[in-house]
Structures are given as C-alpha cells and as structure tokens.
Amino acid sequence: MNTTAYKRVTTPTNHYQQRTSRLGLKRIRRKKSVLNQNFFSRFLRHSFVRYGLLFLTVILLCLDIALRSGAFSKIDTAVQENGAPNHHQRHVKRRGMRIPKKLNERYKHSDIMEEVGDKSQRYAQLRKVYDEMLPEEDTQRMRAFVERLREREYNTIMADDMNYDIHNCPSEPPPNYPDAWANKDILINWPIDDTNPRELIYQGLCVFNYDTEYDKALEYRERELPFIIRNDPKVLRTTERWNQLGYLEKLIGDEDHRTEYSPNNHFMYWSNPRHKRRKPNEWKPPTEIIKMSYRKWLSHANITDENKLRPGNEHWYFRLIGCGLQDRCGTDSEYLFDELAFFQPRENDLYMSDPEEQKGIHCRFGMKGVIAENHFDGTRNMIALFGGERRYILSHPDQCENLALYPKGHPSARHSEVDWSNPDYNKFPEFEKALSNEVVLQAADVLYLPTVWFHHIVSLGLNFQCNTRSGVSREYMKEINACGF
Fold it and tell me: 149: Cβ–Cβ under 8 A, 6 or more apart, which residues?
C-alpha cells in the first residue's frame, strides 16, 4: 500500500500528469531566476553601491588619463630635489608620451635635448646659476679664458722636412698623411715616464681652427684621417665651466664612481677570459677596479709633492659614464649629455658620424704620470680635453705587427705587450721598426681618431678628458685582420 502510494506521487502515470510536472519544474526554475534578478536589482538600488561603482569608474578613467599624459613618470619632486638621475625621461619622446608640464616650466639650458640628459631639478638649478654667471654669447671671454689654460706651445721637431704645415694644412690631405717617425726616436726625445713638457715634439697631425677651417676638418674626417680641431664655441663653453672653482664637485656630488687603481703609473685594460683555458699561466689583473667619489680621487690626484707622483707609486684613474640612448648601462652620469652638448646623438657631420651607433659618453680624469698603454679601439673616436694636458703617441694600423700586441683571446688583447717606459728590443725586435707621431692635447682640443688607430696616452698633469664613439669605418680593417684581429 505504501509503496503504491509512493509511486503515484513521484511517478506520473499519464500524459497530463507528465505535462503538469514539467510545467511545475519550469515555474520553479523561472522563480529562482526571478529571485536572483531581484536580488541584484535590490543590491544595486542601494545608493552606496551605485556611488561606489561610479567612484571606481572615475578612478580608472583618471588612471588611464594620467598614464597617457606621463604624470606617473619618475620625475617626482622628491627624487629631483635629491638630485637622483632620471632614467625614464630620456625615453619619453621615443615612447610618444607628453612631457609633463612641471618639467616644461623648469629652467632649460640652450643645448638641452629631450631624449637624453639629466632632467632633475638639482641639475637645472646648478646650470641656471652658472649660465647666468657665464653668458654663452660672450665667445671672446671664453676664448681668452681657455688661452690662459694653454700654458705653452708645442712645435714640430721635423718641420723643415715635412711637406705641410700642421697649423695651415691644405684642404686636400697630403700624401701619406700624417707623417710618422721611428718610435724609438720619439721615446728617446721624450721618455714615457717624463712628464716635463718638451718644446719640440714629433707632431704630424693637422690642427684646425673651428671658425675658419671647419670644412677642412670635415674633409679629413670623411677621409677617415686623424686631426685636431680647436676653438669650437661649445667646447670652449664646457671648458670654461668645468674650470670654475668647485663646479665639478657640485656637478658630480659625493657618489662613488668607477675608478681604476694601479700600484704604479701604468694602466692597461683587461677583461676576465670567458674560458679559463685562455687565461695565461700566472697572469694577474694589472689594475684593480674600485669605487671612489670625485672628492676622494681629487685628494689623491691634486697634489704637488712630486715624490708621491713617481712612476712606482700608487695612481688612480677616475671615470664617469653617460648612457644616453643605451639601455641598462648601469650608471648615473646622464648630465654629461648636457655638459657636452657637441657629443649629443644628433645628426652631426663632424663629431657624430653615426648617432644611432653612439656608445655613450666616457670621461676619464687622470692624475699626473698616469699611462694608458698602447692599444686600438674598434670604433671611431672623438676625444675632448677640458683641462690639463695629455700626450698621445699615435700609430697607423699598418704598424700593428711592429707593436707586439697581446693576441686575440688574451685578457689584454689589442694592447701592446711592450713596456714603453723601458722597451726590451731584444725580446721585441719588431718594436724597433715601429713608426709613430705624437701630439699634446690641451684645453678645448678635440682629437679625431679613426677606427683601429693605435694610441698611447700619458697624463702630463691633472686633466679631464671625455670621448664618444659612433660607428665603425672599414678603411683599415685589412691591416688589423692581417695582424690576427
């Protein structure tokens, strides 16, 4: 009886009962749906919910507008007042983002380039003070100031035997330019460790005046020949500013920067071999890479006690690096692109052959007696001096085999194995046949070195040098390839 009753309740026995059951199920489902809809409707009727959603929508719209306008760039007031570098702003234009209005209201020096440089408030204030103190329109003042920094003149020892005048070079480069002489004679006339200036030197490079011989310099540059150009107003301006008492201390600050330390006055570049098997037996790094502030380096370098500056004593080589358009360079000296506007990555026929291939700006501050061993670089090189004097001994790439270089794969490859302070002609007989010429860079001089030209550098006193590289020329690769590189 109970079982039958259960079946009658739960199991329809005819078509009418089945249809009624299905309709009831639909009503139940519809009712649940209506109940759900009513729940959300009642929920949305609450004012705090509506206002909350409206507020959230406004916030999202504001965030979107702020991101598009660049308001969330890293140029916030706190960072700028502390003088921290802005690595974001140099890419703002390339990313198609609008420069924040706050930045546009700051002081802008005449050489500013939005894509590179230091956009901090600290730097803007520093430049404003010195730009007002040293107006850029007065080129006569700048030139007179720089002339006082050039304490002496250097003359060519073999001037009578040359077919051109280095101070009045022809527009068409002379055959076999630049003249070169026996490296042995150059070192006898002026030994490497001797920092006392010589009146007569073996100079073969032309010296061009920016105002009157710019076209000549451009012709030599296009022929990929080394030369010196001087009296560029932009270079004069930087030189004058950098030689103002205390300016570099304010510019660089107290942050530590890469510094090379040597127990003597010789500095040779090196890198750790990728493969241990290539590491020569008993080889040790010739220098040590440390961190040091500019003030601390200056306390070592700016001394007058000659006994502390002897070749066998400790020496330090201070460095600054500006990355520019290079990403992940890992340094914070972007103000170099403001200070050295002539080295900015612009279309520039003379200083910047290939802006897209620029490898930043590198500055090396040398103390008296520092020697950068003879080597070649694989790119074009523009080198500017802003104070002091540096002696450069230059060699054509065809002298590669005579300079006895460390082989490819050595930690100091591209560098001469010969100790130029005391050449061993028995061990390196080919070095006696090497030909070179020399030049002394002075304040506001810019030297152009084509790709793979050899240079040996001696700091004749406290000095400030910066260089930039832009692209590779192929004119001398045959000679370097024949030498094993």
Answer: 239, 243, 387, 442, 443, 444
Kindly list the strands in the beta sheet with 266-267, ordered across the sheet, starting from the edge strand earlier in the chain. 181-182, 435-441, 390-395, 454-459, 371-376, 266-267
Query: Coil, strand or helix: which one is 373?
Result: strand
For residue 178, is the peptide bond before it cis, meaning its omega torsion is within 30 degrees of 0? yes
> For the segment 451-485, what is each residue's pLDDT rounded down to a tens digit?
999 999 999 999 999 999 999 999 999 999 999 99
Cβ burial 13-45 (10 Å sphere, 16+ → b, else e): eeeeeeeeeeeeeeeeeeeeeeeeeeeeeeeee
Beta carbons of 99 and 92 less than 8 angstroms apart: yes
Q: How far is CA 72 from CA 7, 64, 100, 114, 193, in A?
A: 72, 11, 9, 17, 55
Length of the chain: 485
State pLDDT tens for residues 249-303.
Answer: 999 999 999 999 999 999 999 998 665 556 677 789 999 999 999 999 999 999 9
User: Where do we find the tokens 């030049």?
Assistant: 439
What single DSSP character describes residue 341? G
Give the DSSP per-residue string, 391-445.
Answer: EEEEE-GGGGGGS-BPPTTSTTTTBB-S-TTS--TTT-GGGGG-EEEEEEE-TTE
C-alpha dist (Å) from residue 155 to 99, 190, 237: 52, 14, 26
Tell me, rounded to whole angstroms, the distance of Cα 163 from its chain centroid: 38
Nearest to residue 440, comparing CAs of 178, 271, 263, 205? 205
Residue partners of 353: CB distance under 8 A and separation at least 6: 221, 380, 470, 471, 473
Token pair of 322, please? Answer: 């500006």
| Beta strands across the sheet bearing 463-470 | 207-209, 227-230, 445-449, 381-385, 463-470, 358-366, 315-322, 256-262, 288-293
Count Cα neighbours of 288 within 13 Å in the Cβ-side half-sphere. Answer: 10
Q: Which amino acid is at 254?
A: D
Interhelix angle for 47-69 vs 15-45, to 10°? 60
Rounded distance, CA 251 to CA 234, Å? 18
Q: Angle at CA 81, nearest 5°, toward 76 and 87?
A: 55
Furthest C-alpha separation in the chain: 139
Q: Which of 443, 445, 442 is nearest to 242 (CA)?
A: 443
**How far apart are the C-alpha atoms of 178 and 108, rounded to whole Å?**
42
Which one-letter DSSP state was computed for residue 287? Answer: S
